[in-house]
TrEMBL record:
Belongs to the TRAFAC class TrmE-Era-EngA-EngB-Septin-like GTPase superfamily. TrmE GTPase family. GTP binds at residues 235-240, 254-260, 279-282, 347-349. K(+) binds at N235, S254, I256, T259. The gene is mnmE. Homodimer. Heterotetramer of two MnmE and two MnmG subunits. Its main location: cytoplasm. This is tRNA modification GTPase MnmE.
Length: 439
């Protein structure tokens, strides 16, 4: 399906080029050329166009003066069965800065070619129907993934996991719409009532399925990390434990009570899961204004915690349901025995109990993260799916087949926005502009 390519990305008919691999120096640098003039550009530099989809060694020369630029592997991919849906060429160069700069400069002097802007290759793939919007979002997430759970979800999205599910839902809606049209045409037939009941059950079952998807934790949990707040009285060992978990001196530690005055945040991956650890000021009645502000912020952080690491009297824990009660500094004299109600004893200095604490955090996180057999939905995708569910809910209050048909049309329209079939022009620049140049 051919889609329009809105402004902000130049003329969709231009032939574009860019470095699509990492910045040099590197062992190999890949320059990609996409558009109608890709074969002309390849012939201008290499003197020939190789057989499709076969790597070929060639000497690249500057068309302006015939100067040798590099000896490289060249590949030719005629459209539309390419990454962008257009004619596509790749130059696999030696990855030195001067080599890459010389080749890009030579391409820039060719008539009809221009440098690509950030995300333009992916945008052309979307415009030419090679990927849909959900798959493009998955690719963006994959490029930004830092943990194993982020990578798995992003890859499933980029590989069409959500798109296939949406297409299945859409086909069920189309089938129901066709049945409704048939019922309107043959309203006098005896079996219409039975058909109505069947369509209603089909639609309500689908609405329940979609509501179940919406009930899953959002993708932002994977991206931003599970919020873990360390809290307790002053000098309880929160900052020392915080530093041990993030494996660096992110927070100042001191035997002086009240050293931590403000919120300190640090992202960390534990066992492939992203966490955002938050160190807080000790909870007590502050003796000065700055400390009181810090304590107020600590109490506010408690409310936003997904998991609370409570380093204090178990009986004083403000939210036992979200908490892991930690007995810190357990290797110090006089602190060998954990108090009743503690979940774990640890020593940030010696490492005692730290492996088990990481396991406990992952176990708690598993219940807060999306199921691994389902692609997690981001905010935009959830909003579109929620609109679909709302449209289907209109069927509960009416027997009018015409209104049923309109509700199904609204539901399909919401699904089309989810995958980018329609109604998403206003957010495309923002999405593709977040890609790097060459993607």
């Amino acid at each position: 399906m051919k889609r329009s390519a809105p402004g902000g990305f130049g003329d969709a008919g231009d032939t574009i080029f860019a470095l699509s691999s990492g910045q040099p120096p590197a062992a190999v640098a890949i320059v990609r050329i996409s558009g109608a003039a890709a074969s002309d550009a390849l012939a201008a530099l290499a003197g020939r166009v190789p057989p499709p989809r076969r790597a070929s060694l060639a000497r690249l020369r500057d068309p302006a003066d015939g100067a040798l630029l590099d000896q490289a592997l060249i590949l030719w991919f005629p459209g539309p069965a390419t990454a962008t849906g257009e004619d596509l060429a790749e130059l696999h160069l030696h990855g030195g800065r001067s080599v890459v700069a010389a080749v890009l400069a030579a391409l820039g002097r060719l008539e009809g070619l221009r440098p690509a802007v950030a995300g333009e290759f992916t945008r052309r793939a979307f415009a030419n129907g090679r990927i849909d919007l959900a798959e493009a979002e998955g690719l963006a997430d994959l490029l930004a993934a830092e943990t194993e759970t982020q990578r798995r979800n992003a890859l499933a999205l980029a590989e069409g996991g959500l798109s296939r599910a949406v297409e299945g839902w859409r086909m069920r809606l189309l089938d129901a719409s066709a049945r409704i049209e048939a019922m309107l045409d043959f309203a006098d037939e005896d079996d219409v009532r039975e058909e109505e009941d069947m369509v209603r059950r089909t639609i309500l079952d689908l609405a329940e399925e979609l509501a179940g998807r919406l009930a899953q934790p959002p993708a932002e949990r994977l991206r931003d990390g599970i919020r873990v707040v360390l809290a307790g009285s002053p000098n309880a060992g929160k900052s020392t434990l915080f530093n041990a978990l993030v494996e660096r001196e992110a927070a100042i530690t001191s035997p002086i009570a009240g050293t931590t005055r403000d919120i300190i945040e640090a992202p960390v991956a534990i066992g492939g899961t992203a966490f955002l650890l938050i160190d807080t000021a000790g909870l007590r009645e502050g003796e000065e204004e700055i400390e009181r502000i810090g304590v107020d912020r600590a109490r506010a952080a408690l409310l936003s915690a997904d998991i609370l690491l409570w380093l204090d009297d178990p009986q004083a824990c403000p939210d036992r349901g979200r908490a892991i009660i930690v007995h810190p500094r357990a290797d110090e004299p006089g602190r060998e025995g954990a108090p009743a109600g503690a979940d774990i004893s640890v020593s940030a200095r010696s490492g005692m109990g730290m492996t088990r604490l990481g396991e406990m955090l992952r176990e708690r996180a598993a219940a807060l993260l999306p199921r691994e057999d389902m692609v997690a939905l981001n905010r935009r995708q959830r909003e579109a799916l929620a609109e679909c569910v709302e449209a289907l809910a209109l069927l509960r209050g009416t027997e009018d087949m015409i209104l049923w048909g309109e509700a199904l049309r609204l539901a399909r329209s919401a699904l089309d926005r989810l995958t980018g079939r329609a109604g998403v022009e206003d957010m495309l620049d923002r999405l593709f502009g977040a890609f790097c140049i060459g993607k």
